[in-house]
């Protein structure tokens, strides 16, 4: 107990927020295969998820679990979800959708709750930005991510009741941001105060702790505890399949647990854009800029310039450093 006390004191000193209480755990670890999602039915409501919003084909066409489908920095679970929508994924509409819903008797709509999740896309079966996508949303859309909307359709955007409040370029195969670049954040928490009717957004990249990126916004917050759509809805109909990767799904009450995890040893190239808040334990391996100079060339879609950028300015062959959003951001393309 003495050691725990010392740890708690250190945590307070470093500004590291203590975890709240997980009131619903959407970890995919118990799901060994797509068949496990089929065990849930209206008559037999087992597991962490309801699975009824999907197309006509076998579940294995829409859902798969595996270690490579999660953010590798996440330590709370061993595997993530690959979720697919395609031309067969119609449910009660012309829209294409594959969505899981929390299965729980817990009240997911009172007090202040944090809805956590991480998302990723790949270059294989990449989401088509010419179609609107609703991602991890509620029936009344008071908080959700969207893709394929607005002026920059290639951004993943956070919407509150129809208004875009925040966005990040949706890069392929990036859990780690482009090598810990904080422009890219794919770990999220919707911070919902159901009593105060506000919602705010926490986000981070890779294994970095969540930080609040948008202050509370007033809106009409509501859930019946069975309408948090852990999945994707693509408006319109098109043929190519899209794969979305989802992990670290859970709902927490009390205070937010900002920790993502310590990673799995996957390389996290250091940059000077690391936040001042780091999880306990990460101090044993100080970040230095000398390591960065050992790999001076950026890979495809990685950042190679822009105000404040101190990482690599060259690109691996055959890519060139392109000013995508001057003077803030250049990318290897
Ligand atoms: C939620 O909103 C209510 C009403 O505005 C406020 O009194 C309360 O402090 C908020 N709760 C938290 C945990 O922020």
Automatic annotation (TrEMBL):
Ranges where the record places region Disordered:
261-297
Q: Where is the composition biased (Low complexity)?
A: 265-284
Query: Is Repeat tagged as a keyword?
Result: no
Gene Ontology cellular component? Answer: extracellular region
Its taxonomic placement starts with: Eukaryota, Fungi, Dikarya, Basidiomycota, Agaricomycotina
Tell me the organism: Botryobasidium botryosum (strain FD-172 SS1)
Q: Name one GO molecular function term.
A: cellulose binding
Q: Which UniProt keywords apply?
A: Signal
**Biological-process GO terms, alphabetical:** carbohydrate metabolic process
Bias-annotated ranges (Polar residues): 285-297
Descriptive protein name: Carbohydrate-binding module family 1 protein
